Amino acid sequence: MAEIIPSILSADMARLAEEMEAVKAGGAAMIHVDVMDGHFVPNITIGPPVVSSLRRSTDLLLDVHLMIENPDAYIPEFIRAGADQVSVHQEAVVHLDRTLNLIRSSGAEAGVAINPATPIETLLAALEIMDFVLVMSVNPGFGGQSFIPYTLKKVQQLDQLRHEKSLEFLIEVDGGLTPENVGEVVRAGADWIVAGSSVFHSKDPRTAVETMRRVAQEATLSRI
Predict the structure, then answer these.
(1) Phi/psi at 185 (nearest 5 deg)?
(2) Which one of the listed residues 34, 37, 63, 191 is annotated catalytic?
(3) What percentage of the chain carries pLDDT values higher than 70?
(4) Residue 50: phi, psi to the nearest 5?
(5) Which structural domain, as residue segments, surrounds residue 111?
(6) Catalytic residue, candidates 37, 63, 174, 191
(7) Is 34 a catalytic residue?
(8) Which tens digits make up the pLDDT trace of 101-113?
(9) Which of helix, strand or coil describes residue 175?
(10) Domain total for the chain?
(11) What is d(CA 22, CA 177) in angstroms, rounded to the nearest whole number?
(12) CATH number of the domain residue 94 falls in
């Protein structure tokens, strides 16, 4: 079954522990943590101290998405702070193989994110050493954006590639996911669905997660 991963970018930053408990009660097993530096993307969010605080406040897996320049300089610190898995942007990394191995040797699972207009062909040589691929379905930097339809084809292409090459990387999709479109994205091959505004801007985050999990489960069964 596809996992729903709530993104704290849309949560109430003054009530993060409470917000995480609510989505955990709805069935979430992971929390998505967007790290932005104001250079790679036009926004600034959080750093390792907040990740450390999150780690002390929850036993949920922390899925840390680095939307930053020079990620190699910060990867070990985020993992020491408690990140269970770390994704870096293909567009921000000079030596992708080295960076993926740095994440793994530091003790976390390694993922690569690609922006909407970045072709998946840029990842082909390194797919064997990725634990997951994060397909951005909005342009990174802000929450609350609308899903970009053409990114669905990238999910389908990645799903086809892993079957053809017998690879085990998972497919994560982030941006504009709602109860109305999550089924289509899961049927295309997504395993992990990041949801921010549709969860934390709802009246009840727990119910929002439960609803999206139900839709995702139905979509998963229909693609088997």
Answers:
(1) -70, -40
(2) 34
(3) 99
(4) -70, -40
(5) 3-223
(6) 174
(7) yes
(8) 999 999 999 999 9
(9) coil
(10) 1
(11) 19
(12) 3.20.20.70
